[in-house]
Write a structure and sequence with these properties.
About 16% of the residues have low confidence. The chain is an alpha+beta fold. The chain contains 10 helices and 16 strands. The strands form 6 sheets. The protein has a 4-stranded mixed beta sheet. Strands 1-6-5 form a 3-stranded mixed beta sheet, with no helix packed on it. A 3-stranded mixed beta sheet has the order 2-10-9. The N and C termini lie far apart (88 Å). It is 24% helix and 28% strand. Helix 2 packs antiparallel against helix 3. The chain is elongated.
């Protein structure tokens, strides 16, 4: 029966790519096999759906053909021959393949090869899975750390290379043999007869699951997977000028996969609020309170900045809420040289109560 990938992900057919991605993340988190109430089959189905409609080109093919290669159903086809007939005998269009014996690896066809590969049991989809899972985490830093940058050590619980077998999946001291079924290639070739001729296809060896080797005795810790759950400490360099909500990507620092490459680590930065400073782009804004006398007569004051105390001249006659600029005392530009400015808003504090002498003096001044 044809699968409705949109229904599996719980989204409408006209959903945006962002909506599809958000739905996938939520469901994957809920049904992950490592969760207490996880469901491996459901997780696999969710991943299959996202691998298709989560990619624009594959989604176009799916919208056109449906899940034509996963079974029968409305808009689908029970086999390759039915699909070929529906396309006028040649699913590849004009200039495709001629009749006769053709040797062809569907794994070389890019995105279209993914669809055909899954129908014939090709190895391309398995190859894509030979990467460890990505990890997403959050890190809080102080305002000053976001301005000047900082190095932090974080500890993550994740899949790491098994320390007992060093990732080879075998119990130390036991033999690792070449798979007799695929002779070490990890793939099994077969010939499929179609109206276009005989196609040679490849699928993952069921005996060794594509590894090309078998174990005399699997590792007692990881059961042959080559990975185990453990703690890893990672040093992160936060660049100067980073903003709240920005994300840092560390390639290869996600979950390990000894049969491929490690996933990536995504770090969402959260900058704590500072009671003294606010940020506007690469400028820093702060308030400074002065007395009426300072506003009237002028003064030299010390302003607190992220660089420390800086002298500022208050000219005579300064009005409340006037702004002054300390050039180059703001946040470093993240993608270029230089820094923003520090903008000071001067607030004149007016006393609530005056004694008689003060009132008389103000009246005499006429202000």
């Amino acid at each position: 029966m044809a699968k409705d990938y949109y229904a599996i992900l719980g989204v409408k057919k006209d959903a945006t790519q962002d909506e599809i991605k958000k739905a996938f993340r939520k469901l994957a988190h809920e049904h992950h096999p490592d969760k207490e109430h996880g469901n491996a089959d459901k997780f696999k189905e969710i991943n299959e759906a996202y691998q298709t409609v989560g990619h624009e080109e594959k989604r176009k093919q799916y919208d056109q053909f449906g899940s034509a290669f996963s079974g029968t159903g409305s808009g689908g086809f029970s086999n390759y021959q039915d699909f070929a007939r529906a396309q006028g005998g040649n699913p590849f269009g004009q200039g495709g393949f001629s009749q006769g014996n053709v040797n062809f690896d569907f794994g070389d066809m890019g995105d279209l090869g993914d669809i055909f590969g899954s129908f014939f049991g090709g190895s391309r989809s398995q190859a894509k899975q030979a990467k460890g899972s990505d990890i997403e985490t959050e890190l809080s830093i102080d305002f000053e750390e976001s301005v000047f940058g900082v190095e932090r050590n974080i500890e993550l619980a994740k899949r790491i290379i098994c320390k007992h077998c060093q990732g080879n999946g075998a119990e130390p001291g036991s033999k690792i043999n070449t798979c007799n079924n695929c002779h070490g290639s990890g793939k099994i070739s077969s010939v499929q007869q179609t109206i276009l001729g005989a196609f040679q296809t490849q699928r993952v060896c069921p005996n060794c699951q594509g590894e090309g080797k078998t174990y005399e005795k699997k590792c007692k810790i990881c059961s042959g997977s080559g990975v185990e759950y453990g703690q890893e400490q990672i040093k992160i360099k936060i660049p100067a000028g980073i903003e709240d909500g920005q994300q840092i990507r560390l390639s290869g620092r996600g979950e390990s996969n000894p049969k491929g490459s490690a996933g990536d680590l995504y770090i969402n930065i959260r900058v704590k609020k500072n009671p003294k400073f606010k940020r506007n782009g690469d400028d820093i804004i702060s308030d400074f309170h002065i007395s009426i006398a300072q506003a009237m007569l002028g003064d030299k004051v010390e302003i607190e900045t992220v660089d420390g105390l800086v002298n500022l001249k208050i000219p005579a006659g300064t009005q409340s809420h006037s702004r002054f600029k300390l050039a180059g005392r703001g946040v470093p530009h993240l993608r270029s040289r230089g820094r923003g400015d520090h903008l000071i808003r001067v607030i004149v504090d007016i006393p609530k109560n005056f004694n008689k002498k003060q009132k008389k003096f103000i009246e005499e001044l006429g202000i």
